[in-house]
Amino acid sequence: MTTSKKAVTGKGSDGWCAGHAWLRVQYRAGNWSAWKHGTHQAVITNADGNIMRSQHKGCGDCAVYKTEK
Question: What's the angle, vertex CA 29, arms to CA 20 and CA 43, rounded to 5?
């Protein structure tokens, strides 16, 4: 899920998905955040509402999935 103030990604906990859930966002100025990760979920917030899009990946295969808000 991605809005202008928050991006969230997650992965299942059923044991078959390897690696962490990874997330980064692009801000209105064009710059990307650093990748953030967690075992089941990653969240990035921006109180000013400057999030434009996000990228999500699970490092079982490290494929990147792009979203627009």
Answer: 25
CB 10, CB 41: distance < 8 Å: yes
Evaluate whether 1 touches 10 at the Cβ level (below 8 Å): no
Backbone φ and ψ for 50, nearest 5 degrees, come out as -95, 5
C-alpha radius of gyration, the chain, whole number? 12
Taking a C-beta distance cutoff of 8 angstroms, is the pair 18, 60 a contact? Answer: yes
Reading the chain (69 residues) residue by residue, the pLDDT tens digits are 899 999 999 887 766 667 788 999 999 999 999 999 998 899 999 999 999 999 998 765 677 888 766
Tokens of 34: 């650093």
User: What are the sequence ranges of the domains in the chain?
Assistant: 6-68
